[in-house]
Amino acid sequence: MTEIHGSCDPAFESVRGLLQQQLAQGNEVGASLCVNIDGQNVVDLWGGHADAEKSKPWEKNTLTGIFSSTKAVVSIAAHILIDRGQLDPNERVATYWPEFAANGKEDIKVSHILSHSSGLPAWDGGDHARRDAGPGSQSAYQTSTYGHLVGELVRRISGKSLTQFIADEIADPLGADFHLGISEEDWPRTADIVPFPAEYAAAFNFDPESFLGKSAAGSALLPLLPNDPKFRKAENGSWGGFSNARALARIGSIVSLDGTVDGKKYLSPETLDAVMKEQIQGNDPILFVYMRYALGFGLPPGKDFRSVPEGDGICFWGGWGGSLLVMDRRRRMTIAYMMNKMEFRTIGCARAEEYVQDIYKNFDAKK
């Protein structure tokens, strides 16, 4: 029988059984799963292996590449500046970053960047590509540009790199094992990404001149990138984070606990109310799914999106292949799931859906 490690409140014991089942059936190679309620981890589980050969066990402190789940942490960095009055979502980006206004970008606001409606989902000839639609008129997920755009705002305002700001203001104060780029000394405890089957690679043969092709250029459409030494060393706020479920749940609890964790205030409830307001919705041409965007997070898109339940006070983000972070202010609950075996999905995965649904079922039964 596949061994699962960690702790689990008896009320959530079925979650342990589900993780064990997924590992035993080979749906998972290695994974960590954490549920934090009112600041306490009621589920903190891990198991499986950190490599495709299954020779290296997944340990308590194992890290893995989390792809775009990185963006959730980067968004919280921006929210901290908003809370301090240093960054105004309704202000033009060029107010903080004058050079940004070049090539017709002078009307793009901070809110457009944070809601993926800036019209800048791609790189083009050293500058940002533009959609025909104006900023704020349609979402187009900023796969590879989000981290740079938000990161430069952070640098212009704080004087710190995005990596340093996240370490100083979020990860270190929380004691959260999150890294934007990872040092060589941590590589021995970093799990290898196990990609989806090679036949899916044909899905990425986009016309390079098409909108979708341009948005894919330079993005994380190579599933093995987190295994590459050069990628591991880079600061990439779009998809270059390395962490585990325990650490991501700790960071996400900033949102779920109304901005205060262990007595330290990171955000005010009023700021959270503001950044969780819907900015734009519709079928995202990059993610191929219907999305509702707030400032830096997704909001529950509806009953057909099984990774996140419907309801007020809930926001989320996830990473390519399956990782997921759900933050629920009404229940004061954070769910984080990190794994190394990728599924061919842009947001969440079938396993994440099962875990989340089981967790909510247990939470509601516990009340």
Q: Which key phrases capture this entry?
A:
367 residues; alpha+beta; Beta-lactamase; 6-stranded antiparallel beta sheet; 3-stranded antiparallel beta sheet; 11 helices; 29% helix; 18% strand; globular; Beta-lactam/transpept-like
Task: Provide a quick synopsis of the model.
29% of the residues lie in helices and 18% in strands.
Structure description:
- A 6-stranded antiparallel sheet has the order 1-3-2-16-15-14, with helices on both faces.
- It has a single domain (4-366), classed as 3-Layer(aba) Sandwich (Beta-lactamase).
- Helices cover 29% and strands 18% of the residues.
- A hairpin with a 2-residue loop joins strand 5 (123-124) and strand 6 (127-128).
- It is an alpha+beta fold and 367 residues long.
- The mean pLDDT is 91.
- The protein is globular, with a radius of gyration of 19 Å.
SSE order in H/E notation?
Answer: EHEEEHHHEEHHEHHEHEEHEEEEEEH
Query: What is the terminal-to-terminal distance?
Result: 32 Å
Q: Give the C-alpha Rg.
A: 19 Å
Shape: globular
Q: How is the secondary structure organized here?
A:
Blueprint: E1 4-8, H1 13-24, E2 30-37, E3 40-48, E4 64-65, H2 70-83, H3 93-96, H4 110-114, E5 123-124, E6 127-128, H5 146-158, H6 162-174, E7 179-180, H7 211-216, H8 229-233, E8 241-243, H9 245-256, E9 260-261, E10 264-265, H10 269-275, E11 280-284, E12 289-293, E13 298-299, E14 314-318, E15 324-328, E16 333-339, H11 350-366
Helix pairs in contact: 1-11, 2-5, 2-6
